[in-house]
Specification:
The protein is of the alpha/beta class. The protein is 49% helix and 19% strand.
Length: 524
């Protein structure tokens, strides 16, 4: 015969009962007592204090306000109820859903109100990686069919951003690496950091909220969504459809740096640029200041070299002009003209002599004919014609000589106006003015760039979170790690954390003042 012991909650221990004569006793138990007996037996069982159960989730219900979960876990022919309160499920790696095959770990207990036994769940995980891969591939195929992965939907990443938003885990190594790399590479950028839950039950809502907050900022150039490495379960929040669509619908270009180089989440496929690690994402978001300064120096050297080449070419052309035979001996330019003029003069003289001899011969012929015929009137007329011819010849030769002299004077003035001395002087002045203007513009450009980099560095350092804490400000967080910015968000007795420059304080809310500006001064 089986004998067992049990205890009633809140009462004295009950003696052992012999099942053979149990029905013969006169004591009648209430439903509460029987339920408590069964609960005591179950909870005192070593085998049921810590059990792992495999099954499929059905009838899932999440009480949003309290954070409690209720669901059934079923197998082929059986089903058991499961409960997980907020204090237990806050560290779950994913949000359970109907149809998921999982393994839960907890202890078996009795819900006395209904007399139902149930598992109080403390841990939950997917039943094998294969189930996650199946969900991953199914959603990936769906999103790809909708065209969310196409390159035509991706926004360009700006080369020189001014304002960058970062969504990553608060105080995480990934966030520290991103801030450190951006400060080192491009300190002129303005950084907006949104602490984000990137793993666990509340990761989905936190990531979506962070994306909405960053997209609401004005003139934001790029967003970095980052998380350190982990297992497929750890990164599962970035494979949830609402999170993926929030990244795709971002109006600001998004760079994802999630996990390690071999980790690919669905957010990576829809983002505008995927980085293998958070550190690489920071490097992709901003240019390298040292490379920019090196490029400026290269441009400066190229500009100086170009001007030197131009000056050298000008000097070479000037030297070649100096060595030109016409500039060294301008008389050679006139010698050809003078020689041509002499030839024309000689030809003119010869033509005039021939014409004079012809006229003289004709005159003699007339004289002989007149001597025989004695036509005195005809002789007088011929002598008049001859005089007229001599007059016209004199005018003609005079005009030709005057034109030749004017041409010689014109060539002489042109040669002296373009003398080598004046040409060299003008070219030297022009080269000196150009060199001075170029050197001035180069120095001005370099000084402006240096001032811009210095001003950006000063502005970035002044806006750094560490500088704000150095000035005496503090950051107040609740027990969940959320920022407290209003007293009405706390309750009397809440534990709060006050973060200072290099230390932190823990305290309890004893009293709170809702308005400190004099309108209404009410304490709760």
């Amino acid at each position: 015969m089986m004998i067992f012991r049990y205890s009633v909650l809140g009462g004295a221990p009950i003696q052992s009962i012999n099942l053979d004569n149990f029905m013969q006793t006169e004591r009648i138990f209430s439903v509460n007592e029987i339920t408590r007996m069964i609960k005591s037996v179950i909870e005192d069982s070593d085998q049921l204090r810590d059990v792992g159960v495999r099954g499929e989730i059905t009838n899932f219900y999440f009480q949003q306000s309290a954070g409690h979960m209720y669901f059934d876990l079923k197998s082929k022919d059986a089903k058991i109820k499961c409960v997980s309160f907020r204090g237990m499920n806050r560290n779950f790696n994913f949000m359970p859903a109907n149809g998921m095959k999982v393994i839960v770990r907890g202890y078996v207990t009795i819900y006395e109100v209904r007399g139902e036994y149930q598992i109080m769940v403390k841990e939950i995980r997917h039943d094998g990686v294969g189930n996650l891969h199946e969900e991953y591939e199914k959603l990936k195929a769906k999103l790809k069919a909708e065209g969310l992965f196409e390159d035509e939907n991706k926004l360009p990443i700006p080369l020189y951003p001014k304002r960058i938003g970062v969504a990553s885990g608060a105080e995480s190594a990934a966030l520290h690496d991103i801030i450190k790399i951006i400060n080192r590479r491009y300190p002129a950028v303005e950084l907006f950091v949104i602490p984000t839950i990137v793993q666990g039950l509340y990761a989905k809502a936190s990531i979506i909220s962070s994306m909405e907050m960053l997209n609401s900022l004005d003139n934001l150039d790029v967003i970095i969504l980052a998380r350190g490495g982990g297992s497929l379960e750890d990164l599962w929040a970035f494979n949830l459809e609402p999170v993926v669509r929030s990244v795709f619908n971002s109006r600001v270009p998004v760079i994802t740096g999630i996990g390690h180089q071999t980790d690919f989440t669905l957010c990576d496929f829809v983002s505008d640029m995927r980085a293998p690690t958070p550190s690489t994402a920071a490097e992709m978001a901003v240019p390298d200041r040292s490379q920019l300064l090196g490029r400026l120096k290269e441009l400066e050297r190229a500009a100086v070299s170009n001007m030197k080449n131009r000056v050298e070419k000008g000097k070479f052309r000037l030297d070649s002009q100096k060595s030109h035979i016409l500039l060294r001996d301008p008389g050679r330019l006139l010698s050809g003209r003078i020689q041509h003029h002499d030839e024309l003069n000689s030809r003119l003289n010869r033509t005039g002599d021939i014409m004079l001899r012809g006229y003289a011969a004709r005159l003699k012929a007339y004289d002989r004919s007149v001597a025989f015929q004695r036509p005195f009137d005809r002789i007088k007329r011929l002598k008049g014609n001859l005089a007229q011819l001599f007059f016209e010849l004199d005018i003609y030769f005079g005009n030709r000589f005057a034109a030749s002299r004017d041409m010689c004077d014109l060539y002489t003035k042109a040669v002296y106006r373009n003398s080598p001395t004046e040409i060299l002087t003008r070219l030297a002045e022009r080269v000196e003015r150009t060199d001075h203007r170029l050197q001035k513009n180069i120095n001005l450009n370099i000084n402006n760039r240096k001032k811009a980099v210095q001003n950006g560095s000063v502005l970035l350092n002044s806006l750094s979170p560490e500088r704000v804490l150095d000035r005496g400000y503090a950051l107040v967080l609740d027990s969940d790690g959320h920022v407290i910015n209003e007293a009405e968000n706390t309750n009397i007795g809440d534990i709060i954390e006050v973060r200072l420059r290099s230390s932190k304080l823990l305290g309890e809310v004893k009293d709170k003042e809702l308005d400190i500006h004099g309108r209404r001064n009410t304490k709760t």
